Amino acid sequence: MEIVFENVSFSYxxxxxxxxxxxxxxxxxxxxxxxxxxxxxxGSGKSTMIEMINGLILPTKGIIHVGKHNLRKNIRIVNSxxxxxxxGVVFQNPEEQFFQxxxxxxxxxxxKYFKYKVxxxxxxxxxxxxxxxxxxxxxxRDPFKLSGGEKRRVAIxxxxxxxxxxxxxxxxxxxxxxxxxxxxxxxxKLLKNKYGKTIIVVSHDVDTLYKFVDNVIILSNGKILxxxxxxxxxxxxxxxxxxxxxxxxxxxxxxxxxxxxxxxVGNIDDVNDLxxxxxxxx
Length: 282
What we know:
The protein is 38% helix and 23% strand. It has helices at 46-53, 80-86, 103-113, 118-131, 148-160, 178-193, 206-209, 230-235, 237-242, 249-261, 271-280, and strands at residues 3-13, 19-30, 35-39, 61-66, 69-72, 87-90, 166-170, 198-202, 215-220, 223-229. The protein starts with a strand and ends with a helix.
């Protein structure tokens, strides 16, 4: 599902004359069946963008095309349930999306809300757990008493179970160790490559993002600073640095190596591939 922003602005009104412009005339496209990253400093407009995609707030100006849904100022979303069904959100803090006393009920909640057939719910619940690396022994556990990594997995499973076309991950690597991050990367790649999902990842962790995203949108003060293929966007190191945007460490290292050796390394996602490239050219 493609998502298109056309000259979208949004202002938070805190009483006249106090107004905060969170987004300013933003036009961009979030690519269908790709992993799209939205990055930028706090207050740049990232959260506003994902809230509008999910129909929680509407543009002050402009229009957003979310598949067949058109979101604009002062309209009532005719089929809000359908929009919610198409868009799944994994919150930064898993506890914010937990409502039930057991993992089973938590994962079932979305399917029951969207009126899945009873005979589908049990299978989809177990399948969703397996996709995030958890087994059936978790079904009767209290989600609030799980470890941080386990909570994150249950939160993801509860979204996967009702099978939305678009999945938004808000700061998904916060609090995760290296092993859990690698598991998450594999899962997100699987969702794109095998199931054709459109993925949106909002994160400050650019080093991890660079390993698996396809496209990047960089926001600054409510405007788009840069966007496009991740290799093209992060190649412009000086421009991004001037605007206070953190560049992935591997990109900085490759840039310094190319300057020193005069050899072009090319597009490499992680350190292991870089090491292979270096040894092949020694």
